[in-house]
Amino acid sequence: MAITLTDLLDEKQVMLGLRSRKAPNALREIIALLAQNGKVDPLQQAFIDHDGPQCGFCTSGQLMSAKALVLHNPHPTRDEVRAGMTGNLCRCSNYNHYVEAVLAATAKSATSGGGGNA
Fold this sequence. Notes:
- Helices cover 49% and strands 10% of the residues.
- By secondary structure, the chain is mainly α.
- The chain starts with a strand and ends in a 7-residue tail after the last helix.
């Protein structure tokens, strides 16, 4: 059985299985997103603040999709976030929390001069 991960490949969202030869890169991307200079990524903090992670089944995929989105569109609209997060199945149906988290992270980035990683 293969497990699907969401990865960033050339700053684009891609889905790949653990059996894929690219899978180790996916794990490195997720780990690299976890902390920079001892702090979590602004997207991760927004996910925490907005009760994004529930069971954890989709959290890493949601984070990678959100990261890919904001790398190409630092200030997306609600509809753009929804479209950019398509493809990740959430067993808890927590999609609205993820959308709110992305919007909050990008709004915070905009008000702080865009200096954040989000």
